[in-house]
Amino acid sequence: MAMALLDQIRSIFDGDPGVRKVADDPVLSAELLMLFRMILADGSVSESEMVAFRRICKEAFGIPETSIDSVIEYLNDFGYETNGSQAIALFRDLDVERRKLLAQHMAEIAKADSKLAENEVRLLRRTLDLLDISPVDVVKPQE
């Protein structure tokens, strides 16, 4: 309880820890922007897509649930400065597993609302081409 209070006080002075994490990591910022673009690709934001985005933020990137709304606000405020090609360029030099992870997260969001819109498929296909990833690599192995 005392630690939670200290974290809240610190966030007032230092800013939100999740936003700091995203702001300090250009690759993470780029990935979240690409995920957000996938959410918007079909022209609407579904609750299931946002649930998938929030889960990915929390589980894959360790962004606290309490920070996700602030992270989304940060991306809205500063994301206009980065277009999709610039975001993808940050991934080209990363190892293939990290590039596959981006593609898997994008596919997960695209499928979250149980409908694959043509624009979502196009965005995913273009991203796979730019990342030099095969569509087969997007399918997660069964665990």
Write the layout of secondary structure elements.
Elements (H helix, E strand, L loop, with lengths): L1 H13 L2 H7 L2 H15 L6 H15 L6 H11 L5 H6 L6 H16 L6 H14 L12
Helix pairs in contact: 2-5, 3-4, 3-7, 4-7, 7-8
InterPro entries: DjlA_N, TerB-like
Organism: Mesorhizobium abyssinicae
Pfam families: TerB
Structure report:
- The structure is a single chain.
- With 143 residues, the chain is an all-alpha fold.
- Helix content is 68%, strand content 0%.
- It has helices at 2-14, 17-23, 26-40, 47-61, 68-78, 84-89, 96-111, 118-131.
- α3 (26-40) packs antiparallel against α4 (47-61).
- The radius of gyration is 16 Å and the shape is globular.
- Residues 33-138 form the Co-chaperone DjlA N-terminal domain.
- It comes from Mesorhizobium abyssinicae.
- Pfam families: TerB.
Essential attributes:
mainly alpha
Q: Radius of gyration in whole Å, from Cα?
A: 16 Å
Q: What's the helical proportion of residues?
A: 55-70%
Largest sheet: none
Q: Report low-confidence residues grouped into runs of 5 or more.
A: none
Order of helices and strands: HHHHHHHH
Mean pLDDT: 84
Q: What spatial form do the alpha-carbon principal axes imply?
A: globular
Distance between the termini: 36 Å
> Which structural category do the helix and sheet elements fall into?
mainly alpha
Q: Strand portion, in percent?
A: under 5%
Number of helices: 8
**Strand element count:** 0
